[in-house]
Amino acid sequence: MSSLEVAKVLNNNVIIARHPENGEVVVIGKGIGFNRKTGHYIPIQSVEKMFILKNAHEQEQYKQLVPQVDEKLIEVINEIILYVSKRSNEPLNEHIHIALTDHISFAIKRAEQNIIIHNPFLFETKEIYPLEYELAEFAIRLIDDKMGIDLGEDEIGFIALHIHSALTNQEITEVKQHSQLISDLVVVIEQQLQIKLARSSLDYSRLLTHLRFAIERVRQGEKVSEPDKLEDLLKQEYPELYFLAWKLTKMMEQRLRKPVYQAEVSYLTMHLHRVAPKHS
């Protein structure tokens, strides 16, 4: 296949083309849509990025979205997605093209109107998803360099969640719900133990990581086993912490609508012991 037929030009850098095997595909390339008309053929070597939006609803969404977005931004977002793809070395869910374009274009409009949205999960996002956070930092820098718009630190956290969503094939709403759940679990821990966890401490970082992986195990129905008699020992030695861990796993069950294996209570008790005041 040496060329693609143009089905629709969305702007100078994005066209919808007809692919012999995949039907309609989205084709991105610098200036690829310039002076093109429906029925024209474009050489395959001028294509920078091609993706297939199999979902007809998503394809329609993208067709409507692109003409409303600054062409420069389309270029920048394409560069961001290519960078994320190379750095993560993982296949990205193609929905990221719609999700990131929509999210960033809206964030820019808000910035131009001086509307600031605080990100309550910023620290947790940085701790739980370090790679995604680093990639989002690159995205924010690139937008600033190429478009002269600084979207700020709060936005790094939001973009990191979108990147995580694309890398894990999770809906962005689910990713946000998990971040909210972790944040709520931490609040309960602090209230019950009557402490304020130092956000920069290693123990806090370990606790967040443990909660993240516990949620991921529950989400995937992954069973964890525990050494014999560990549960009895922890119940006896640290009854309050064990009860708190049980309460936290019940919160997880309720919010994730999935069962939590008993062993999770024991492992969470050990993590709570790390952060609890030593008189507990």
TrEMBL record:
This protein's UniProt keywords: Repeat
Gene Ontology terms, MF aspect: RNA binding
Pfam families: CAT_RBD, PRD
Domain of life of the organism encoding this protein: Bacteria
Family of this protein: Belongs to the transcriptional antiterminator BglG family. GlcT subfamily.
PANTHER family per the UniProt record, alphabetical: CRYPTIC BETA-GLUCOSIDE BGL OPERON ANTITERMINATOR, PROTEIN GLCT
The protein's name in its UniProt record: PRD domain-containing protein
